[in-house]
Write a structure and sequence with these properties.
Layout (H helix, E strand, L loop, with lengths): L2 H10 L1 H8 L11 E4 L7 E4 L2 E2 L1 H5 L4 H4 L3 E7 L4 E6 H17 L7 E5 L4 H13 L2 E4 L6 H11 L3 E5 L1 E4 L2 E4 L1 H10 L6 E5 L13 E3 H7 L10 E2 L5 E5 L7 E5 L2 H13 L8 E4 L6 H13 L3 E6 L9 H9 L1 E6 L1 H8 L16 E4 L6 H11 L3 E3 L11 E2 L16 E2 L5 E4 L13 E5 L10 E2 L3 H9 L8 E9 L5 E6 L3 E4 L2 E4 H9 L4 E11 L3 E10 L7 H18 L8 E5 L12 H8 L17 H8 L4
Parallel strand pairs: 4-17, 6-7, 6-8, 7-14, 8-11, 11-12, 16-17, 16-18, 18-19, 19-20, 31-32
Antiparallel strand pairs: 1-2, 3-13, 4-5, 9-10, 14-15, 15-25, 21-22, 23-24, 24-26, 26-27, 28-29, 30-31
The structure holds adenosine-5'-monophosphate-propyl ester.
Adenosine-5'-monophosphate-propyl ester binds next to helix 11, strand 26 and strand 27.
């Protein structure tokens, strides 16, 4: 059957398609209904079925693979490597689960994980899955305010954290940020389980903080059976940015997620048990959840957990790991590859990468030059795949296990099974013809694995995703796209105020709120300006309360202060690369900030005719500052 036929079948008869796919995982109790569409656009997959993600990721492989590697931890930050077989992983996960249970964490309780890329992060995620607790992993690069809002939203009973992360050989203390976040939060967790990595000294808070090593000693022989969960119970919450300053908790199920991941592991990544998978994504992002932790383990593959930069000790570290562990599939971001372009090209030839069957890149647009450069350098197919935190697995790609059509540079390819992707007009909601730009939308029911809801806010879920396109109840991806005459889809950037810095999704509103908390700031706008390395860079345009003329020193000082405010509240990842101080933001007569005009000026482009602008001179000062490079 050709891929277009198979795809059409998956849409025409989702029950038959996904019933067959559901055999890829083990069920404790069979499901009664494949797809409950009675409350569209919400859907429930595999209703009545009972399963468990940890069972399918770990226990299931014990019979045949107990002594094979499951988790390979490599840290070039602290020069350590540690490997765990499926048998050892099983023991560690049960110990972690026993600690959780001993401190009152049970089914449906939330556990917030704020850890660097260390094995304990994986143990903690799987331990939650094992006992039916809901994990909320917060990226270690986020700071106290970002963390506090996630604590308040998820109301975790327990937080798992460590003394410090590391970046480029520098230790980044976590404990102070976490303590500050908890003091800011209205909702305090009962306990913090601290993994003491011996990286930086810290003061435990008596009664609240627990020491992981001590707790673990007590439960070395723990046997914690898996808790069988109904397919639609919640496996995790993962926060992502949108149009408002308040991040959304993307909520995911158990059974549908397991099936979708198993399906993609077989058909997109062509993974086989016993092979090694290497995703460079941090566990704090969706790629880390789906393809550093759950996906490879579900497929019985070993997964590499890498703590470090792509360029340390040198630009060959990725290929060194590919050679050493005979990696068969690797997942990274275009930025992760672009940073290597500046390195000595010989580094790419130093290692034998013949085990590698594909390099998968996602998270941001893959430019043609990066794609051709790395493909030629490695002699390996590059597979662009487009998806979102909300979808949990690729929406568009060329699934090499199912489809032999060639890739087309600049396009991730075609819709995966179950995704009924349409390009629609933003105003009328009607489908646009091939070759015309529109919003990438998906007609419900969305396939298994996609978000169930926004945690604690079903109304926000429906409002945000299903009411964005007028006249039609379709899921909006908030991306612009275009389909060519052969059906290849091209992604043209976001329709909303989300920006993408180095493959990391950031909400400009969140950054604006943080900047506005600086006492000298009256108002500001943050835009994502094109950047050759990171895809986009956050640039802030700030109006001060006191509009006196600024000296160069004033600008430098205030700019550093604004950046430090963002660092402290959100984390360095959200820090604007440039801050321009202006007297006035360009606004419409009704007071709406003209972001597209600001963006055009910051990128040195002509903003075009601005018929709605209140004061046409508002852009002049910014134009001058950008022109003179005078941030
Ligand atoms: O704008 C799209 C961009 O990243 C957004 C989703 O980011 P996030 O929720 O962090 O999930 C990343 C999962 C890989 C999308 O709305 N994006 C993601 N992949 C691509 C992409 N843009 C272009 N091409 C891609 N392959």
């Amino acid at each position: 059957m050709s891929y277009p036929e198979l795809h059409a079948r998956s849409l025409a008869d989702p029950d038959a398609f996904w019933r067959a796919e559901a055999r890829r995982i083990e069920w404790h109790r069979p499901f009664e209904t494949v797809c409950d569409q009675s409350r569209l656009p919400s859907v429930r997959w595999f209703v009545g079925g009972e399963t468990n993600l940890c069972h399918n990721a770990v226990d299931r492989h014990l019979a045949s693979q107990a002594d094979q590697p499951a988790l390979i931890w490599v840290s070039t930050e602290v020069d350590q490597e540690k490997s765990f077989t499926f048998g050892q992983l099983h023991l560690e996960v049960q110990r972690m689960a026993a600690i959780f249970l001993a401190h009152g964490v049970g089914r449906g309780d939330r556990v917030l994980i704020y850890l660097p890329m260390i094995p304990e992060a994986v143990f903690a995620m799987l331990a939650c899955a094992r006992i039916g607790a809901i994990h909320s992993v917060v990226f270690g690069g986020f700071a106290s305010h970002a963390l506090a809002s996630r604590i308040d939203d998820g109301a975790p009973k327990l937080v798992v954290s460590a003394d410090a992360g590391a970046r480029g050989g520098r230790m980044i203390p976590y404990k102070g940020l976490l303590d500050e976040a908890i003091s800011l939060a209205r909702c305090k967790p009962e306990h913090v389980l601290m993994v003491d990595l011996g990286r930086v000294p810290f003061d435990p808070i008596p009664g609240r903080d627990l020491d992981y090593a001590t707790e673990r000693e007590r439960v070395l022989d723990a046997q914690v059976p898996v808790t069988w969960l109904e397919s639609n119970e919640i496996s995790y919450i993962l926060y992502t940015s949108g149009t408002t300053g308040k991040p959304k908790g993307v909520q995911r199920d158990v059974g549908g997620y397991a099936v979708a991941l198993a399906h993609s592991m077989a058909n997109v990544f062509q993974g086989e048990p016993g092979q090694t998978y290497f995703s460079t994504s941090d566990i704090g992002w969706v790629v880390g959840h789906s393809y550093t932790v759950y996906g490879p383990l579900l497929a019985g593959m070993a997964t590499i957990l890498y703590e470090g930069l792509p360029t340390r000790p040198d630009g060959a570290i990725f290929w060194n790991l590919v050679e050493k562990y005979r990696v068969s599939a690797m997942f990274s971001s275009p930025t992760g590859i672009r940073v290597l372009k500046k390195q000595d090209p010989d580094l790419l030839k130093r290692h034998d990468v013949s085990s590698l069957k594909g390099l998968y890149l996602a998270g941001e647009p893959l430019d043609e030059s990066t794609s051709s450069w790395i493909s030629e350098a490695l002699g390996v197919p590059i597979i662009d795949n487009y998806w979102q935190t909300e979808s949990g697995w690729p929406i568009l790609t060329i699934a090499r296990g199912l489809d032999d059509r060639p890739a087309r540079l600049g396009s991730p390819g075609f819709a995966m099974p179950g995704f009924d992707v349409r390009i629609v007009d933003e105003v009328t909601g009607l489908e646009v013809p091939a070759g015309q730009k529109g919003v990438v939308a998906i007609v419900p029911p969305l396939p298994p694995g996609c978000m169930q809801s926004v945690w604690g806010d079903e109304a926000r879920f429906l409002e945000t995703y299903y009411r964005a396109i007028p006249g039609r109840e379709v899921y909006s991806t908030f991306d612009w796209g275009i389909v060519d005459e052969d059906g290849y889809t091209f992604i043209l950037g976001r329709t909303d105020d989300v920006i993408n810095v180095a493959g990391h999704r950031l909400g400009t509103r969140e950054i604006e709120e943080s900047i506005s908390s600086h006492k000298a700031v009256a108002e500001c706008a943050v835009v994502g300006v094109a950047d050759a390395l990171k895809g986009q860079a956050a640039v802030a345009v700030v109006v001060l309360k006191d509009s006196a003329v600024l000296t160069a020193e004033d600008r430098a000082r205030l700019s550093a202060e604004v950046m430090a405010t963002v660092d402290r509240q959100l984390g360095a990842i959200a820090r604007p690369a440039k801050v321009y101080f202006v007297g006035l933001l360009p606004k419409t007569r009704s007071g709406k900030v003209l972001r597209r005009a600001i963006l055009a000026v910051c990128e040195g482009r002509d903003p075009g005719e601005l018929t709605t602008i209140e004061d046409p001179s508002a852009l002049d000062q910014l134009r001058q500052l950008v022109g003179t490079g005078n941030a």
